[in-house]
Write a structure and sequence with these properties.
By secondary structure, the protein is of the alpha+beta class. The protein folds into two domains: 194 residues, no CATH class; 174 residues, no CATH class. It has 15 helices and twelve strands. A six-stranded mixed barrel has the order 3-4-9-6-8-7.
Length: 413
């Protein structure tokens, strides 16, 4: 009952000095609002990106040469061929393999209706769509027979199909010129995550067609990177070790060359990405917490002023029997109420700004489907931090008020 009385008194003091209270709470509002905004936006981004990548399969191991840059600059690149892939698929150590995407990527041009477009070419097996969990929005993918015949057929990415035609359905059956040759559009497939590493204008064609019509002669049978789909129940780390061993055997690589290999599962990449994003969130939140410290200093200063202004009130309460502990609790609760109200306003501001950010993204990129994510733990943490800030920075003024001598307090002018 006494606690409720203290809270009511604190609220009356807050309302009686609105301007001073608002200015005092400003640091708390900014600090808590910043923390909530950063944590909420981080969760929204994480949810979106993880959802995008997870939708394209996590039981996939990516294999590539790390490239002639950084510590590997000037070294002879490791080149994979279709023969290497056949040897890996035939290996008794790699029975967990369920499908392989053998990708040859390059940039080229596509002409339609008198307009030329720069596109990212992805030559592959028909299995590329299953390995990457790509859904067809219209039409179909190329078949093994079309692959064997090196047919000039293609599948367009969703975004590129919409750019060229009014809809995915209208794209099917159309004839376009790719690198100066006529190709028939067989289907339209959903976009890779965020446009993938090569942009959003994707063109998928049979790997054999790339070698027959587009790739330079020296690139015949060469592969840019492998995507290996494995049994979801397989031990990923064990499979990776066996895969590296087999690549080393098939390609006759020494230990230094083996270090050049990039062999990572998407699941592990997601875990690393998650940890990095959490680290960034914590770093930015720590910077935002400086505002909380500044706000706490403001709380302490204003409470010291309040003690001065209410010296006679304190003396009167002590004269009628109020204990030091009662005075201490009263001023502590007033400080806590002040920071808690500021924290609640900050939470509202942070959540509101995060929601507005989602609406802006929806307006700019409606196809992304970004969803607002409410983070209860962030709200609970913000409330706890704001109350704790009030108690910590309100302690000294409260102790000073409790130690006032009643006679001296009554005489104070």
């Amino acid at each position: 009952m006494m606690l409720l009385t203290h809270v009511q008194t604190a609220l009356r003091q807050l309302l009686a000095n609105k301007g001073k209270s608002i200015l005092t709470m400003l640091g708390i509002v900014i600090g808590i609002g910043s923390v909530i905004l950063i944590m909420t936006l981080g969760e929204i981004a994480k949810s979106f990106l993880l959802g995008q990548i997870t939708g394209f399969g996590t039981n996939v191991v990516e294999v590539a040469d790390q490239g002639s840059f950084g510590p590997f600059a000037g070294e002879e690149p490791i080149v994979f061929t279709t023969e290497d892939v056949a040897a890996l698929e035939a290996s008794s150590l790699l029975e967990e393999i369920q499908g392989v995407s053998t990708s040859y990527t390059s940039a080229t041009s596509l002409e339609y209706n008198g307009e030329t477009h720069a596109v990212s070419l992805w030559g592959d097996r028909p299995s590329v769509f299953d390995v990457n969990n790509l859904d067809f929005l219209a039409g179909r993918g190329f078949s093994d027979n079309e692959m064997n015949r090196s047919d000039r057929v293609m599948v367009l990415s969703e975004g590129f199909a919409k750019e060229l035609f009014n809809s995915s359905a209208e794209a099917v059956g159309q004839t376009v010129n790719l690198d100066g040759r006529a190709f028939t559009v067989l289907g339209v497939v959903q976009d890779p995550p965020l446009g993938g590493p090569f942009g959003s204008d994707f063109v998928y064609i049979p790997l054999s067609t790339v070698y027959a019509y587009i790739a330079p002669p020296e690139d015949y049978n060469q592969i840019t990177f492998l995507l290996i789909e494995i049994d979801p129940a397989a031990d990923v780390d064990q499979f990776k070790d066996q895969l590296v061993f087999e690549i080393q055997r098939i390609k006759h690589l020494d230990s230094d060359q083996t270090k050049r290999l990039y062999v990572e599962s998407r699941e592990q990449f997601l875990a690393i990405f998650d940890n990095v994003l959490v680290g960034i969130q914590m770093f930015v939140a720590a910077i935002a917490a400086i505002s909380l410290f500044v706000g706490g200093i403001g709380i302490m200063n204003i409470m010291l002023v309040t003690v001065k202004e209410r010296t006679k009130e304190i003396g009167l309460r002590k004269a009628v029997g109020a204990k030091n502990s009662s005075i201490l609790v009263q001023f502590l609760i007033e400080a806590a109420v002040l920071t808690t109200v500021g924290g609640l306003i900050g939470i509202s501001v942070g959540l509101g700004l995060a929601y507005v950010a989602v609406l802006v993204v929806h307006a700019i990129q409606p196809d992304w489907g970004v969803q607002f994510v409410f983070v209860p733990s962030a709200v609970v943490l913000a409330c706890a931090v704001s109350m704790t800030t009030g108690f910590i920075f309100g302690l000294y003024p409260a102790m000073k008020a409790a130690k006032l001598h009643p006679i001296e307090a009554l005489r104070y002018e």
